[in-house]
Every structure is written in C-alpha cells, then in structure tokens.
C-alpha cells in the first residue's frame, strides 16, 4: 500500500470480505482525504479476489481504469482508491481454482501449461493484448479473429474487460518467430491502437502469475499499435554509477514514491529484510534530491565500535578521550550539504539516539568534548531490518526519534515476493561477474532458473549477487546447471525448495533435481538425459554442417524444439551460416 509519504503492507484474508474506507468499521482503514468513508470492498473467495467500488467519490481503479462491477484482481495489478495506491501480490494458491469464470479458467490452464513446459523442457509463451478502452467493437473483432486463428493447443480469453491473454505452447517468444509474428500482426490489424506484450517461460518467469504480470507490464511499456517483449517492461536506473534494475510493479511504484520524496526534505525510513536493496533506495532519494551533488555518507550503525559511537557520529575535540589525539569531524558533519544514510538505525545505543534526536531537531551538533554547537545542513535517510514500532514498544528505541525518522516510511518487499526480478537480476549479475573476470558469458539453464525461482532468498538480492559471483568463478563450461548451485538451494530428494510463497502447483509437480553432488557421483537422471540430448544435438549439427533444419531432421526433433533447446543450451548459431558458435 502506498499512502501519502509511506508504504506498508496489508494482508488479505484467505477468504472473506474487506471493507476499504476512511472511517471505522473499515478493515483497511486509509487516512487519505481522497478516500471515501466507505470506498470499496474486496471479496476473497476460493475463486480469487475481486474489488467492487461502493460509489466512492474519487473511484476505484485497476491499472488506471475505473472499476465497474466486481473486478477480478491478478498478481501485479495496480489498484487505486482515490490517491492511495496498492499493488496486488498473490500468494501461492493451495486451493484448486473453480473453473467458472473465463479469467480463472485461463489462469488454471496456464498453470497446467507452465507445469508441462517446465517438466518436459518445452517452450511456452504468453501474449497479452491491452485494448486502449474496453470497447465492445474492438473486443468482438478480436474475438472473431481468435476463433478463426487459434491453434488447437492454444487458449485465449479475457483477463478483464481490457486485457486479452493468449497462451502459446511451443512458442519460445523469439521476435518474429513463426506463429508468434503473424499472430501479433493479425491482432494489431484487428485492433490498431492496442498494445501487445509477451513473456516466455522460464526466461521471464516460472509461474503463471509472474508470466502474465510480465506480459502485462511489457504491453504497458509498448507504444499503441506495437508489441514489446518482457525486457521492455524493465527499467534500469543509473544512479550516478549505481545500476538498479526495477521490474516488479510494487518496486516501480516504490521507486516512483522515492522520487517524489526526494523532492521534499523529509527524513525517509527504509524498511526491509537484509540485502533487499535499502541502501540503493536511500541513494536514490539522495541522487534525485537537490542535494544529489553533495556527499552521500553511509553509516552502518551496527558496525560502529562500541564506546566510539558518539565520537564517530558527532566528532570529537582533541583530548576528549584517551586516543583522541586530534580534533575530528564526525560522520554527520562530513555529510554537510548532502545526505547521511543511517543503516541499521535500530542498533544505535540509547545515548546516541538522544543526541541524534537533538541534532535533528536543532540542526546543530556538538562534538564530544566540545561545548560549541556547529550547524549542520543535511538530510537523513535511515534504514532498518527490524520492526522499529515493536522496538519502541519494547523500550529499545525512542518513540520521538522513531516519529522523527519515520515521517515517510518505505517498505521494500523481499526478493521472494518479486519473482519477476529473480531471473533478470540473476542474468544481470552473472553477466557483470563474467565481464569482470574476463570470461565468456554464461547461460542459466532452464532448470537452474526454476531452482532460482523456487529459492526463498533469505539474504535477498545480496545473496543472489554473491551466488552469481560464485557461479561465474566456479563453472567451467558455458551453461550453469542446477548441480552447480549450492545444496541449500535445492530440496532434499528432489522436493522443491520450500519457498513459502514461491512454490506453485506446477513447481510441486516438477521433476526431481539434486545439486551439489560430489565430483564423480552420478548425475540425476533428468540431468543425464539433458547431457545426452545436448551431445546428440551437437553431433547432429556437426553432421549437418550447422544447418539446423537438417540437424533437427537427423535426430527426429521438431525444428522449433531444436532451436529452442539450442538457445537454452547457450549455443549461439550465427545468423546466415547457422553453425554453432560455442562448441
Ligand atoms: N534492484 C537492484 N538492482 C541491482 N542491484 C541491486 C538491486 N537491489 C539490490 N542490489 C544489490 O544487492 C546488494 C544488496 O543491496 P543493498 O546493500 O542496497 O541492500 P540493503 O537492504 O541495504 O542490505 P543491508 O540490510 O545488509 O544493509 C547490493 O550489491 C546492491 O547493489
């Protein structure tokens, strides 16, 4: 939820009704003036969650469109109640979806297709068509076209009044690919102002909700009458040399909030688990603020040497304590004109908390051992992985300081709740690690992407980055296979890793994978089969002098599957010559 200057989280019940409004007895109580007393109702049943506007003054919108009737919510939907914005995040469904409504039936079908694609290593893509307006004429012409064109294995239908979903098994999502290119052209011919977005499994996601969310943001990024692939729904922020990838809809909203906050002088409190990207968020506030050209001083409050916390923060006079041989400016003073980032602010001892509060109130500091006050001109951005409110209740953190620092609070979601960003960040970190080691690029095998998508990431983005650094240094071949990943990433006896929200129906049914087998140990059967397939494909390519159609025919594999698998194996066939480049 993004309300005013802060973001927070609201968990929907597994089943029941949630009244959204500005006054009691609302279950989701919003203070923003733009919200009506009784604004909307969210109904959660085993068929999913739906939102209904209750005749509110400023309306309820989903993805920028006014809600009419009961609107089904999908993961990644951006929901607004007046000026309050929420991003919908689906938890894994443990209940079977009753196949009554079109969108639910489609999603259930997609789940089955994702399962099949992952289980048998088959290509699968989804295509989302976003209509400029939910006009019935456009809808009918698209429907007529689809009925005439749809292949037997394809499923098509409306996600909502403005979004059409096509599930395309055996399509890998390559631009201009046979089957996909014509379909997109035909759709755009029927609906010239629509936007198209595509996403492929497992490259862009390993579960149905993620694939649809990715394809929808790609469609949003496309120009009217154009198509965009998943990568175009991703933003790379270049913050004075720091590169931050943002693809998850909640992260996009949060970065938009950070940009708005940057324009003010408010202190910002960034909350989230360790390694989730809090420092990047703090730096973004600094970079986009009028202080952007000033210093950004990051202070890890948990790492300040005990007994020296105050002199480190506020500086000291010569002789203030044993060892203070010279007068020294503290970290706050060195952030003059810029921003001080107080990481792990919850770890500050009580005396430093009191002194910090005073410094922020009077905008002056006093060095340890000094009596003079010195003016400071800085902005504070603090971060914590703790629940500071609970720390206040427990008497470990000053309430007045909490109020001061937390004027605007931004809660960053953990990586396991941003499934879209896992493959993106993994590829990005891996590619950078390869460049810095001066080695050729590595490719993440489909099963490796699947394992990454199921991992719970307790160390969040940092854990993923470290893993990719390790993989770049340790893997000798061209492809990162699941057995290259550390054993903790994989479940015992082939069970999926217990990613609490990440495991899907498809995931649970996927084939067993084991990792971390010692050298010389037998490979799991699935992997042995992949090795064999790879060898046969390479032999066939050699025998066919690099001509893929011939090679595929030699081993009796459909050409589409052959080129999809080559791509997954990281074999680049030069255009024109069509011969493998990596063997
Ligand atoms: N969206 C992103 N794109 C690229 N890199 C990222 C992203 N988010 C985090 N990282 C990288 O992941 C690592 C951890 O991020 P960061 O230090 O910001 O996390 P943190 O929440 O401040 O961690 P801690 O809780 O330990 O202080 C850094 O190397 C950071 O650059």
Task: Tell me the number of helical segments per DSSP (H or I, 4 or more residues long).
Answer: 18
Distance between the termini: 50 Å
Unreliable residue stretches: 92-100, 492-521, 575-583
Helical residue percent? 25-40%
Side by side, the strands of the main sheet go: 4-3-5-6-9
Cα-atom radius of gyration: 27 Å
Taken as a percent bin, the fraction of beta residues is: 15-25%
- The average pLDDT value, as a whole number, equals 83
Largest sheet: 5 strands, mixed
Tell me the overall shape: globular
Number of DSSP strand runs: 29
Say what oligomer this is.
single chain
Q: What ligand molecules are bound, each kind once?
A: adenosine-5'-triphosphate
- Determine the structural class based on helices, strands and strand pairing: alpha/beta
Pfam families: AAA_lid_14, FHA, HTH_8, Sigma54_activat
Domain FHA: 18-67
Organism: Corallococcus soli
Protein name: FHA domain-containing protein
Task: Break the fold down into its secondary structure elements and pairings.
Blueprint: E1 2-3, E2 6-7, E3 16-21, E4 28-29, E5 40-45, E6 48-53, E7 60-62, E8 65-66, E9 71-73, E10 78-81, E11 84-87, H1 102-120, E12 124-130, H2 136-149, E13 155-160, E14 163-169, H3 180-190, E15 195-201, H4 208-221, E16 227-228, E17 235-239, E18 242-246, H5 249-262, E19 268-271, H6 278-288, E20 296-300, H7 309-314, E21 315-316, E22 328-329, H8 331-334, E23 339-343, H9 350-362, E24 364-365, E25 374-375, E26 379-384, H10 388-393, H11 399-405, E27 408-411, H12 421-437, E28 443-444, H13 446-454, H14 460-474, E29 479-480, H15 505-509, H16 525-543, H17 548-554, H18 559-568
Parallel strand pairs: 3-4, 15-16, 19-26, 19-27, 20-23, 23-26, 28-29
Antiparallel strand pairs: 1-2, 3-5, 5-6, 6-9, 7-8, 7-10, 10-11, 12-14, 12-15, 13-14, 17-18, 21-22, 24-25
């Amino acid at each position: 939820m993004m309300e005013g200057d802060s973001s927070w989280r609201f968990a929907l019940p597994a089943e029941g009704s949630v009244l959204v409004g500005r006054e009691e007895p609302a279950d989701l109580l919003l203070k923003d003036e733009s919200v009506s007393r009784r604004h909307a109702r969210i109904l959660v049943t085993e068929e999913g969650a739906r939102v209904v506007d209750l005749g509110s003054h400023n309306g309820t919108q989903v993805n920028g469109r006014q809600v009419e009737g009961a609107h089904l919510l999908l993961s990644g939907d951006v929901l607004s109640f007046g000026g309050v914005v929420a991003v919908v995040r689906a938890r894994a469904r443990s209940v079977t979806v009753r196949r009554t409504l079109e969108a639910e039936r489609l999603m259930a079908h997609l789940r089955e297709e994702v399962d099949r694609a992952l289980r048998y290593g088959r290509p699968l893509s989804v295509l989302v068509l976003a209509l400029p307006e939910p006009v019935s004429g456009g809808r009918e012409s698209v429907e007529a076209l689809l009925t005439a064109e749809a292949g037997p294995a394809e499923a098509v239908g409306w996600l909502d009044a403005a979004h059409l979903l096509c599930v395309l098994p055996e399509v890998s999502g390559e631009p201009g690919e046979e089957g996909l290119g014509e379909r997109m052209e035909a759709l755009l011919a029927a609906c010239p102002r629509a936007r198209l977005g595509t996403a492929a499994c497992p490259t862009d996601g390993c579960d149905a909700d993620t694939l649809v969310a990715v394809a929808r943001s790609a469609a949003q990024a496309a120009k009217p009458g154009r198509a965009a692939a998943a990568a175009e729904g991703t933003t790379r922020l270049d913050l004075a040399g720091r590169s931050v990838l943002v693809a998850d809809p909640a992260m996009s909203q949060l970065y938009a909030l950070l940009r708005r906050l940057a324009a003010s002088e408010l202190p910002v409190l960034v909350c989230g688990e360790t390694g989730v990207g809090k420092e990047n968020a703090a730096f973004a506030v600094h970079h986009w603020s009028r202080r952007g050209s000033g210093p950004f001083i990051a202070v890890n409050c948990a790492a300040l040497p005990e007994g020296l916390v105050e002199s480190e923060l506020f500086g000291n006079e010569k002789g203030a304590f044993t060892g203070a041989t010279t007068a020294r400016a503290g970290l706050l003073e060195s952030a003059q004109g810029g921003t001080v980032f107080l990481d792990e602010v919850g770890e500050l001892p009580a005396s430093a908390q009191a002194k910090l509060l005073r410094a922020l109130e009077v905008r002056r500091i006093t060095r340890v051992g000094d009596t003079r006050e010195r003016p400071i001109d800085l902005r504070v951005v603090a971060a914590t992985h703790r629940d500071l409110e609970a720390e206040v209740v427990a008497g470990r953190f000053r309430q007045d300081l909490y109020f001061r620092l937390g004027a605007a609070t931004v809660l960053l979601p953990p990586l396991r709740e941003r499934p879209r960003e896992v493959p993106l960040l993994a590829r990005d970190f891996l590619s950078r690690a390869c460049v810095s080691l001066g080695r050729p690029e590595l490719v993440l095998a489909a099963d490796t992407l699947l394992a990454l998508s199921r991992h719970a990431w307790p160390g969040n983005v940092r854990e993923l980055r470290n893993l990719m650094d390790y993989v770049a240094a340790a893997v000798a071949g061209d492809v990162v296979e699941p057995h290259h990943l550390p054993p903790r990433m994989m479940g015992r006896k082939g069970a999926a890793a217990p990613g609490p929200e990440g495991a899907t129906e498809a995931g649970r049914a996927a084939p067993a994978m084991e990792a971390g087998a010692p050298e010389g140990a037998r490979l799991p059967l699935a992997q042995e089969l992949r090795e064999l397939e790879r060898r046969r494909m390479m032999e066939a390519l050699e025998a066919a002098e690099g001509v893929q159609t011939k090679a595929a025919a030699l081993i009796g594999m459909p050409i589409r599957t052959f080129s999809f698998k080559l791509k997954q194996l990281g074999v680049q066939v030069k255009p024109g010559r069509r011969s493998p480049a990596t063997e």
